[in-house]
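Input sequence (155 aa), recorded before submission:
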Amino acid sequence: MHGVIAELVDRFERGGLTRRQLIEGLAAIVATAGSATAASAQTPGLQATGINHTSVLVSDMARSLEWYGRVFGFKILSEDKEHKIARLGINKVLVSLRVEPPAGQIDHFAIGVENFNKEAVTKELQGMGLTPAENIEYGFYVRDPDGAPVQITGL
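Predicted structure, token format:
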């Protein structure tokens, strides 16, 4: 718990949190402290299993599809044509391509967690003083201390 409090204070001092967000985070820690067991204090609430995928912004979908197919043998596993997104891999999605500037940027990465349940994960993240959000660009995500979007998903 000390590490979580130190992280909140550090983020506040670096301008990453408002005073209100700091107080809300500290209040959430106090509210949940009484219900935490020794086992849960030693084990992180979210058990990461690895990187689920990385999202890359591209300028030319056809060119990028050809390149990832030729170089890595990736095929389209799913698409969201309305939002210009293609998800590539062999047996599972490893790279998500999205047509949007600035091309060549890593848009976000997704970490897969065991037993993913959005409602439970939301509560867990809020208990850590984080504010999960969801949108078409990053899916269900939180921002790391430097503001990078980290999507959280199932396996």
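Checked by second reader. The chain has a mean pLDDT of 84.
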